[in-house]
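REQUEST ID: PR-0412
SUBMITTED BY: lab tech R.K.
PRIORITY: routine
TASK: structure prediction, single protein chain
INPUT:
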Amino acid sequence: MGIYSNTLLEFRCPLCGHVNAISVDTLKDMYKEQREPCQQCHQMLEIIPANGVNDQINLIVSEA
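STATUS: complete
OUTPUT:
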């Protein structure tokens, strides 16, 4: 997988622990806050994709 692509990433809701997924365009969405509801508890979440080690993508997830 190249670093510049549309990628589906999984993350856990910090409130209920449910595994959610978000599509990230790594070229334009890096370090930009996105808001998505948890699919289980519907809590609005702030998600920020960031560069990680070895070209991995880290998601910073918090309650909105």
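NOTES: Residues 6-63 form one domain.
REVIEWED BY: pending
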